[in-house]
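Technical annex, item 7. During the second reporting period the consortium partners agreed on a shared format for inverse folding records so that results from different sites could be compared directly. Each record opens with the tokenized structure and is followed by the designed sequence. A conforming record, contributed by the partner at site C, is shown below for reference.
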């Protein structure tokens, strides 16, 4: 008598519902928060995965999610509690890798999605990492420097059971920087009893950081922007550029596009929005932001209502702030021919469809802003070998990796007649699930 492959003689009949791969309610894509958006993206790519689609639920369930309490003494002697997160989405291809953000609106759904997008991003550029992300729900602008250090160190101690140079490597993200990474590295090292520079990337140069890391994400946005513009016949030297976000990503990208001859005509950040039809003086604007903290009140531009930013006449739009900025409500108003996602998850699936129907090319976050994690990988490698490269070497290797990854994704997009986002997910998900397939399940 024959038996189904997964059953044995004498095994009682099983209720299929008990073994259903249906997702628990909190993992369903119905809620269009960041995690729901990611799940929809996975669903869209599943038909292209062939036999690997049997593993697709691996992508829909984070490997580990840690929620921690972060209590600290404030400067006035009182005790404050903040909630922190570290999520490892997938580690089939290597240790987890992803930033840590300090923001008052951080949620578990957001961190889960960001960790998942890191899995996709790392696989898209083919660096040997899985995806991870972390965050603390805190407004760092309300903290003194001492309080910020205590939050960082306590958070690092709490997530210390997950991180490590061969387990999970944090990096800077929204409202975190080289100094925060230095505190994280020191805290982990003190708890381990040995200096461990490779536990984080994005560190100061004197602590094992890499030349070119600070500018890497913005440089990657620019590099792939040039490649995409060339393929659609857009001359960057005469292009008008609008940016949302003018920090480490948007500011660097603005400098590089301006240097290439483009006119940066509009910039929006947390403080306001400005516009100048003839192009903004980018170096002067960067100096203004460094002094004042925002683009608001920049004398050589006219103020613009925040919502009017989406109506600005431009050829290239670079959302480089937070997720879910381009939605069904404003996608139809965007005049750009090319959108380069410097931020993580700035475009909803519905907006993606609208832009695609209008012929707007969207260069998705999971490849466009992968310059940062690529140079983070370079930093990690340099830390292990204690041999450091010149900035020219770093930038040359970065451009080689980014251009090679983009060429592969562009080819897949043409082959399947799909958007660049779907093509990126096809490439990345196939790599992740192939690793899962080869490794099998333990035990």
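Designed sequence (site C submission):
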């Amino acid at each position: 008598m024959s038996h189904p492959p997964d059953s044995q003689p004498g095994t009682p009949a099983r209720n299929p519902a008990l073994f259903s791969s249906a997702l628990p309610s909190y993992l369903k894509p119905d809620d269009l928060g960041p995690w729901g958006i990611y799940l929809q993206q996975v669903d869209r790519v599943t038909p292209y995965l062939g036999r690997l689609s049997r593993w697709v639920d691996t992508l829909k369930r984070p490997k580990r999610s840690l929620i921690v309490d972060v209590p600290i003494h404030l400067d006035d002697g009182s005790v404050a509690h903040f909630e922190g997160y570290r999520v490892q989405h997938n580690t089939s291809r290597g240790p987890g890798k992803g930033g840590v953000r300090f923001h008052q609106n951080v949620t578990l759904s957001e961190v889960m999605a960001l960790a998942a997008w890191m899995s996709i991003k790392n696989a898209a550029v083919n660096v040997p990492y899985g995806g991870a992300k972390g965050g603390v729900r805190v407004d760092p602008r309300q903290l003194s420097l001492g309080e910020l250090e205590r939050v960082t160190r306590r958070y690092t101690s709490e997530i210390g059971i997950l991180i490590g140079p061969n387990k999970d490597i944090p990096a800077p993200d929204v409202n975190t920087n080289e100094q925060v990474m230095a505190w994280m590295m020191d805290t982990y090292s003190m708890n381990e009893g040995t200096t461990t520079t490779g536990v984080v990337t994005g560190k100061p140069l004197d602590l094992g950081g890499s030349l070119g890391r600070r500018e890497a994400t913005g440089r990657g946005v620019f590099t792939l922007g040039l490649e995409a513009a060339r393929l659609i016949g857009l001359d960057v030297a005469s292009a008008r550029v609008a940016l949302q976000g003018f920090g480490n990503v948007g500011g660097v990208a603005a400098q590089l596009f301006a240097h290439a001859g483009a006119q940066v005509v509009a910039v929006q950040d947390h403080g306001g929005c400005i516009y100048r039809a003839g192009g903004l003086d980018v170096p002067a604007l960067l100096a203004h932001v460094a002094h004042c903290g925002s683009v608001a009140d920049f004398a050589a531009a006219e103020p613009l209502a925040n919502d009017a930013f989406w109506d600005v006449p431009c050829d290239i739009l670079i959302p480089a702030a937070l997720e879910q900025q381009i939605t069904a409500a404003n996608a139809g108003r965007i005049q750009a021919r090319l959108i380069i996602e410097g931020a993580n998850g700035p475009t909803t699936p519905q907006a993606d469809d609208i832009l695609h129907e209008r012929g707007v090319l969207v260069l998705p976050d999971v490849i466009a802003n992968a310059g940062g994690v690529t140079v983070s990988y370079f930093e990690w490698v340099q830390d292990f070998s204690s041999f450091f490269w010149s900035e020219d070497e770093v930038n040359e290797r970065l451009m080689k990796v980014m251009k090679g990854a983009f060429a592969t994704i562009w080819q897949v997009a043409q082959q399947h007649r799909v958007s660049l986002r779907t093509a990126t997910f096809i490439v990345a998900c196939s790599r992740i699930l192939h690793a899962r397939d080869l490794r099998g399940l333990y035990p």
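Residues 1-11, 16-22 have pLDDT under 50 and may be disordered. The first helix runs from residue 34 to 45. All partners now use this format for quarterly exchanges.
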